[in-house]
Design a protein that fits this description.
single chain; alpha+beta; Single alpha-helices involved in coiled-coils or other helix-helix interfaces; Heat Shock Protein 90; five-stranded mixed sheet; 62% helix; transmembrane helix; nucleotide-binding; transferase; two-component regulatory system; kinase activity
Length: 445
Amino acid sequence: MPRLTSRALEWFGVDDTWERPRPAVGRQDVVLAVSVEAVSLLALELVRSAGGLTHTDIPWWGQWLAVSSGAVLLLGRRRWPLTVALLAAAHMFVAGVTMPEVMGQLSLQIIYFVALLSGVAWARDRRATVVVVGTIVLFMFAWLGWQFAVGSAVQGWMDDEDLSETTGFFPAIPAAVLITLLVNALYFGGAIVGGGVSWRAARQRARLESQATTIAAQAGRLRDQAVVDERLRIARDLHDVVAHGVSAMGIQAGAARRVLDRDPDAARRALSHVEEASRDAVTQMRHLLGTLRESTGDRTSPTDEGRTTDAGVCDLADLVAEVGGQGLAVTLDVVETQPGASGRLPRGIGLAVYRTVQEALTNVRRHSTADTVSVVVRIDEAQPRPYAEAEVVDNGRPRHGTSGSGLGQLGIRERAATHDGQVDIGPRMTGGYRVRVRYPLKGSA
């Protein structure tokens, strides 16, 4: 018995800290109350016209008042659920004592049912809910017992139905008592169970909404963190690239100073190299500042293990060899329109190509069923639109349960934006997945 009581209290949510929001009385409640009142008054008059209220001494306006006051209770069924449930129980008792034929009308019975159901469904204090509902049920069944003991409810019902003689398996009076108890048990039990189901469904919806909000907030933070981390890595990489360019300018400037007097042509070539290196460094710094301008927050980037700031197209063969194997065949093709074009790529572009291929292959390994991957790097220095392009194509489908967060692709797009690259990422019509990024070559290597 204690275990059953504990489970019942748990079902009612007695120890649950969640409180269902109670809306103010609104248009929905007004429409419901007015509609119920109109239908109830119409039904009352139809019953009266059919001669069903012959034993009621209350005048018609008193009957109308009883029906209307019951319908009005529905206005506050969500705002003040327990109060409405208590008032509905009191209304049922008073109407049942003074005008039982009116109280027994289907419209009023529906009103009482909805009021009790709403009390269980919308109450915020679950302990008070158990007390109020338990009090109502005990009072109603005590009232039934009193009618059975000292009243004439059973005999009157038998006389109305002409059940003075036994025609079934059970005696008339016990059968009348049992059917009355059964109907009331189903009536009140149905209201309580329905209200409890409604409350638990609302609580589940609130939990799902809270979880969805939390997941969205976490996804947003992860996305922002990924952007910041990628931008910091780009900043470090480009710092190395620009530092290399500045060092080259210093070396060429020193060489020009040494040969300026005895070999003006050599000095001129050295100074032209300084000019080209400075232009390339300024261009890359401008890209860097444009990409990082929207970065917010003071966050510490995680340590980059195995940084490859000197990597380029020439290092892709080692990367492909490292990723391939264990059921994954990776091929690499470097297509150069002009011989030696890969060696003349700006250092930043070469690193960006390497990073793009690296991230795309990592995504294939983690999230795809592919067994074949093709890596193609195309370099065309022909004017007016020279470019370097990295394309990674696989033959797989997304692996179930490893959808990923999309942060790797976000990093590819961030890096491409640093160099004004064009990105094409997505599934292919013929099957498989493709990552293609084209970097424009704006200057000489």
